[in-house]
Hints:
Helix content of chain B: 55-70%
Oligomer: heterodimer
Strand content of chain A: under 5%
Radius of gyration of chain A: 20 Å
Structural class of chain B: mainly alpha
Strand content of chain B: under 5%
Distance between the termini of chain A: 7 Å
Mean pLDDT of chain A: 82
Low-confidence stretches of chain B: 100-119
Helix content of chain A: over 70%
Radius of gyration of chain B: 26 Å
Number of helices of chain A: 10
Largest interface: A-B, 55 and 51 residues
Number of strands of chain B: 0
Structural class of chain A: mainly alpha
Shape of chain B: flat
Number of strands of chain A: 0
Amino acid sequence: MSLPSATSAGELRSLAERIRQGDASAETELVHEFSHRIFVMAVVRTHDREAARELVQDVLMAVIGALRKGQLQDADKLAAFVHGTARNLINNQLRSQMQSPPLEPLPEDLAQACSPERLEDAERVGLVHQALERLGQEDRKILWMTLVQSQKPGEIATALGLTSEVVRTRKTRAVKKVADLIRKKMSRT
Amino acid sequence: MNCKEVEERNILEGYLLDRLSEPEREEFEKHYFECGSCFAQLQTGLALQTELRRQPAMPARARGASWRRAWVWAPAFATIVILFSAGIWWYSARNRQSSQQVSSPPKVSPNVPVQVQLTPAAPSLEELARVEPPSYSAVVLRGVEDESHETFRKAMQFYVSRDYPHAIPGVRAAAKASPQNASFNFYLGACYLLAGQTDPAIVSFRMTVSLGDPAYSESAHFYLAKAFLQKREVARAQDELQKTVQFHGSLEAGAAEILRQLPK
């Protein structure tokens, strides 16, 4: 699977220019570069994965449409432009509660590049599952109380009979363990 | 916003939990739209949250907590076991001795004192208080290094060569310039402790603990315990060692072993 790249500013600038000139491969690169980011942003803001998947397509279509027409004035700000477009469309969506008419769909080849399987990052979720199984029950519990129940270290500490600093440390360590495993496994693929 | 701020202000978790203000959220999004490393961490955080949501609700009290409650009784239980074992040993030794006396006379010369070592000698408080220097490897920060980091890095060259008294002024200056830096405070405590200055070591380790930096909390408690052992304040050392054990980190086994060996 391809990881979201940390494309340099120069590459992003040329990407915008190539899209303006009608280079189809540049559009695919743009989708690869930003689809995951838009998806994550939309999931966090809408709490609705289905809506987020649709929003990715809407945002990318709006961005590509604008780039084709040369509407991006400063090519150095492509990432900010994509983010701004995403923010506006997500906010519109939240305001209108899905009542706005859908934008023109992405062409088939581009739509495949941001398919649900790719966006959901199934490999990463699978690895997270493995990593969680390797953690001790109490560390899993601390993560669960933090990320699912949204509890603060002080509250978790009270519930588990620990101190806040122990909770913070064990949470940090557990997240690091998970991240290390993912990094290790994904760098092999 | 930069990567350091994201880490220090726990932005990623705040973002996933909708705890950021709108300007903070926007700033972080702009950052991860350009930063591959922070975005990879965010993806992992989101995957973790997704996976944890799929798991069944966890009981209000983790099993570990009941083990911890049991731990409170561990010293009493250990004492009973030791007394019981000692009783059995003494009884069987006495029986063996009397049967040997019946079967054969002792072959030991009366001029040679007989030393009977009943159990391996328990380590003394001084031995338990002995300190191994916490490991240190210099981290060179990307970008411009500020003055306090530079002072710290230079002073730690003395630390690496085990010249702790000479490391103190520089590390202290760095900690004074950046009092919120847990690393500076922790190594200042270590320098003091290794230079035999226990009281200022305790102050620095307490400062480290109060900063709540997960990277140094466990170690700070452990070395605080060592400092208290050097002052022969066993109860306080015990308290710090028990806190160390709770982290279940790399110092857990060492702390538990000292707890076991501490005079009751």
